[in-house]
């Protein structure tokens, strides 16, 4: 594997407000990353810094070995598609597609036309007259057809209905399988993308609180339900994310290893945790440990 992006100690402040606080991680070539976190956690700011749209207050960003700020060679390898994408007032859909063909050096015209057909996007209509769903469909079409080696999707698919979102996920996976690249999905629809994501990045209050492969993460977090004393013993050497007592029973969600045989012998039930619940629990635990000043 080779590194396509390196974020090193990035901090970003806006008028005294810290949007990013010492964020460091790497993106490897050919992988689908989930950039997760609550509204206002810093996800969009992070992507703006990584794509040269914001300059960090401290720290550095490298993409493909170069800095992204006003660097055409580096930015030519990147696509950043966001929900609030803006277009000139007189732009028609066909104009946006033409711009994509001119802007993105890896653009695939056949894929773009196929997506326009699948999403039923009216190419002669002005962009400002598109419905929210059609605007979202245009955004994901541009992002997929760009085939940029590093592609960021900042929730442009939120306006799609469930059927159209599934179409997007299916087309993304199919195209990724044929043309591997590094894709970052920023989303609140965690359960929907759980099977897509290979690596999880979780942002909370501007800090990176989780940087882990999804497969490894699923095996690390579990919920135990059983007699309180037994649960206490089994979870003694784990990182507790959530706990609730129901009489003599305890339900605890922990990060760490608990042997299934030990749990059965103690009369404790082990249950896997969905990615959605995992993010909720880790976020809540982080908030409890770091209260707002």
UniProtKB/TrEMBL annotation:
A UniProt-annotated Pfam family: ABC_tran
Entry keyword annotation includes ATP-binding: yes
Transmembrane feature ranges: none
Single GO term (MF): ATP hydrolysis activity
Domain ABC transporter stretches: 5-230
SMART domains tied to this protein: AAA (SM00382)
Keywords linked to the UniProt accession: ATP-binding, Nucleotide-binding, Transport
Highest rank taxon of the organism: Bacteria
Protein name: ABC transporter ATP-binding protein
Protein's organism: Dactylosporangium matsuzakiense
Lineage: Bacteria, Bacillati, Actinomycetota, Actinomycetes, Micromonosporales
């Amino acid at each position: 594997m080779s590194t396509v992006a390196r974020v090193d100690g990035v901090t970003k402040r806006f008028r005294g407000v810290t949007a990013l606080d010492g964020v460091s991680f790497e993106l490897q070539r050919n992988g689908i990353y989930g950039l997760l976190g609550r509204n206002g956690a810093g996800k969009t700011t992070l992507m703006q810094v990584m794509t040269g749209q914001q300059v960090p207050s401290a720290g550095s960003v490298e993409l493909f070995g170069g800095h992204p700020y006003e660097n055409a060679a580096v930015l030519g390898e990147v696509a950043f598609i966001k929900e609030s994408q803006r277009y000139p007032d007189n732009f028609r859909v066909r104009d946006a597609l033409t711009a994509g063909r001119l802007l993105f050096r890896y653009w695939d015209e056949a894929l773009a036309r196929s997506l326009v057909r699948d999403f039923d996007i009216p190419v002669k209509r002005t962009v400002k007259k598109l419905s929210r769903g059609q605007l979202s469909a245009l955004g994901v079409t541009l992002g997929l057809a760009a085939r940029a080696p590093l592609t960021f999707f900042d929730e442009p698919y939120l306006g799609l209905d469930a059927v159209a979102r599934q179409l997007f996920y299916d087309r993304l996976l199919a195209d990724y399988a044929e043309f591997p690249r590094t894709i970052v999905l920023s989303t609140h629809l965690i359960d929907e993308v759980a099977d897509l994501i290979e690596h999880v990045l979780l942002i909370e209050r501007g800090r990176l609180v989780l940087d882990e492969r999804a497969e490894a993460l699923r095996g690390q977090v579990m919920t135990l339900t059983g007699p309180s004393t037994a649960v206490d013993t089994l979870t003694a050497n784990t990182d507790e994310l959530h706990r609730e007592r129901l009489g003599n029973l305890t339900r605890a969600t922990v990060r760490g290893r608990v042997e299934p045989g030990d749990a059965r012998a103690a009369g404790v039930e082990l249950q896997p945790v969905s990615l959605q619940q995992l993010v909720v629990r880790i976020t809540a635990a982080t908030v409890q440990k770091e209260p707002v000043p």
